[in-house]
Design a protein that fits this description.
Blueprint (H helix, E strand, L loop, with lengths): L28 H16 L19 H26 L4 H36 L12 H5 L1 H7 L13 H20 L1 H18 L16 H19 L9 H19 L1 H16 L4 H4 L8 H16 L1 H7 L5 H8 L1 H21 L4 H26 L16 E2 L5 E2 L6
Antiparallel strand pairs: 1-2
Helix pairs in contact: 1-2, 1-14, 1-15, 2-3, 2-6, 2-8, 3-6, 3-15, 6-7, 6-8, 7-8, 9-10, 9-12, 14-16, 15-16
Keywords: Membrane, Transmembrane, Transmembrane helix
Protein name: Putative OpgC protein
InterPro entries: UCP028704_OpgC
């Protein structure tokens, strides 16, 4: 998954009120959960492997995609809000705050085009050389080979997105519009969240979406709906950057969220309960309830999915044991992947597509279903390790003047104001 790379500027130190206090150890949770989400997305994108039975989508309504948008919002709030605060105080320009976000959105767009080209190449190679011609009929490739002219218009305009390669366009759109959310959030995070929820509701009610081309319909990850998760994360990161909590710990809310998560688990795992609840939701829909309030729809982020990921995020954010677990040595590979999010996400995407071709070419040979995901995760860790080693390599001084100290890094591998790299 992608992470913002914009450098953050420390708060001004012109007065005591702006002086930074002692550095604190970096909170490892965001790194670890980003890395975990990347692993689960990779595993889920290799259908037929035994590990997919243990990813989070089997224990609740939401899956790793919802976690990705929440965490990406938190990353953006932490990484980019500092310059907006400076612009608000008159010590920086608004364009200096906006430009890194739009630059990052462009990087995501170019990554999307590159991944799409490689997806076509990987599945075409399977059809040409591995005896699986059906691969060019999967993941929305039929249009590419059946109506190439239209597909070649749709791909660069993001109207035609391939399966398993369709999450970055929505994130790009959200980064482009995020400056508005940050500016509103600096005045009132609660107001921004209320506006986001209202827009999500209207989007589902009227089925708003960005149109697809040449296929009918709209984007699978509809940014008009998925913005509600991104904004929730964005306001969380923004508040944390200000030294606050967007939604502080409240015992009633915390235990209520736990009860809801347990109820959802029972809904999914106890057939009589699940059947009864599904029937209730169906009847509510027939009675006139808006579909996105009673359905598990992914494109419009059905209410059950949204509530589940928000409850899960709240519990994980306020459970002390989670912080202690994320600080353990065995979580370091996950944290490493989380810090190199875009590179690891891209690697995982290509590995998952390659794995799909290999498994189809070998009739899902059992030992390969167990081995390929492990090899893919190992490569993701290796790529992250190499990238981090390169980024930490000391630079040689230029001439007689030593280079300025590099900014510290926050939990996403982006420059932060006071936190040292562990």
């Amino acid at each position: 998954m992608s992470q913002p790379e914009a450098k953050l500027v420390p708060f001004p130190k012109a007065s005591a009120s702006h002086t930074a206090g002692p550095s604190k150890p970096r909170d490892p949770r965001l790194d670890v959960f980003r890395g975990l989400a990347l692993v689960m997305i990779f595993i889920n994108h290799v259908p037929g492997n035994p590990y997919e039975d243990y990813t989070n989508r089997n224990f609740g309504f939401s899956d790793a995609a919802e976690a990705f948008f929440m965490l990406s919002g938190m990353a953006a709030g932490l990484a980019y809000s500092g310059r907006f605060m400076q612009a608000q105080r008159g010590t920086g320009s608004l364009w200096a705050a906006i430009q890194p976000m739009w630059s990052r959105a462009w990087t995501l767009y170019m990554t999307q085009i590159l991944l799409t080209a490689w997806a076509i190449a990987i599945f075409s190679a399977g059809a040409l050389w591995l005896g699986v011609p059906e691969m060019i009929t999967k993941i929305n490739l039929t249009r590419v080979f059946g109506n190439t002219a239209e597909a070649l218009v749709g791909i660069p305009t993001l109207g035609h997105q391939l399966g398993y390669v369709n999450i970055l366009p929505a994130y790009s759109v959200l980064l482009i519009t995020a400056p508005i959310a940050i500016l509103v959030g600096l005045r009132s995070p609660a107001l921004m969240m209320a506006l986001s929820v209202a827009f999500w509701f209207l989007t589902g009610l009227y089925r708003w979406n960005i149109p697809a081309f040449p296929n009918p319909g709209g984007w699978f990850f509809n940014p008009l709906a998925w913005q509600v998760l991104f904004v929730a994360g964005l306001m969380t990161g923004l508040s944390k950057r200000q030294g606050k909590q967007f939604i502080p710990y409240k015992p009633l809310l915390f235990w209520g969220a736990i009860c809801f998560l347990l109820f959802v688990l029972a809904w999914m795992k106890i057939p009589p309960l699940g059947k009864g609840m599904n029937q209730f939701m169906l009847m509510a829909g027939r009675a006139g309830a808006p579909f996105h309030l009673v359905a598990h729809d992914k494109t419009f982020v059905g209410l059950p999915r949204m509530l589940h990921v928000m409850a899960l995020t709240y519990v994980l954010a306020h459970a002390g044991i989670v912080l202690r677990l994320c600080a353990q040595n065995w979580t370091k590979p996950l944290a490493l992947m989380g810090r190199q999010g875009l590179l690891v996400f891209s690697t995982g995407t290509l590995m998952s597509l390659t794995g799909q071709v290999i498994l189809n070419a070998t009739d899902h040979t059992e030992w390969l279903t167990w081995t390929l995901p492990l090899v893919g995760v190992a490569l993701m860790i290796l790529i992250a390790w190499v990238a981090e080693a390169i980024s930490l390599k000391p630079k040689k001084p230029q001439g007689l003047i030593a280079p300025a100290p590099e900014p510290a890094f926050d939990t996403l591998g982006t420059a932060a104001q006071t936190t040292p790299r562990a």
